[in-house]
């Protein structure tokens, strides 16, 4: 070993032995709770006994370590009849899936349309409990049923939006020609 190499070796070993290192308290380091996975153009099918029951689509999905999901660019849900016909559509500007409650939440411009009964709903937040086959909100809602508009706060319905109960009815009126949700 030549003199230059030996001097360099001594310098490196010295730096390693005497380098200053600050000890860090593990409790003070923030735990990362952001998304652990991201997917684009997702399409989730739910079926029961080989019958198509529902379908969830979104442009982007973020998965979290606790099993929750976020759909920051919007979410669309379709509900089908037992015969497999499309009955109801739900869309929202943003969506979330809360795994521990098996609950979807839509927020922003929420639109629900029962194609068979020609009923429409508009609100800013909705919850869909898949297991109970129920949708609900405590927010202000506008419902159009054929030629009548109902306004109120709070609503519960089956997940097809076939049968609903408006909790606090504010008013109702007949649509004028050209109006509608």
UniProtKB/TrEMBL annotation:
What highest taxon heads this organism's lineage?
Bacteria
Q: Which Pfam families match?
A: LptC
Give coiled-coil spans as residue ranges: none
PROSITE patterns assigned to the protein according to its UniProt record, in alphabetical order = PROKAR_LIPOPROTEIN
Return the protein name.
LPS export ABC transporter periplasmic protein LptC
Q: Which gene encodes it?
A: lptC
């Amino acid at each position: 070993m030549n003199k230059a190499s030996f001097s360099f070796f001594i310098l490196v070993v010295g730096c390693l032995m005497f380098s200053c290192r600050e000890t860090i308290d593990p409790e003070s380091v923030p735990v990362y709770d952001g998304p652990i996975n991201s997917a684009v153009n997702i399409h989730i099918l739910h079926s029961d006994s080989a019958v198509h029951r529902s379908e969830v689509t979104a442009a982007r999905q973020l998965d979290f370590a606790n099993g929750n999901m976020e759909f920051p660019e919007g979410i669309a849900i379709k509900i089908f009849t037992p015969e497999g016909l499309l009955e109801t559509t739900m869309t929202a500007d943003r969506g979330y899936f809360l795994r521990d409650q098996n609950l979807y939440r839509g927020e922003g411009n929420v639109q629900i349309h029962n194609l068979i009964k020609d009923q429409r709903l508009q609100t800013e937040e909705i919850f869909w409990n898949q297991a109970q086959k129920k949708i609900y909100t405590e927010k202000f809602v506008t419902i159009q049923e054929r030629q009548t508009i109902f306004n109120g706060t709070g609503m519960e319905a089956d997940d097809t939006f076939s049968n609903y109960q408006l909790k606090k009815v504010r008013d109702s009126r007949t649509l004028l020609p050209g109006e509608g949700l």
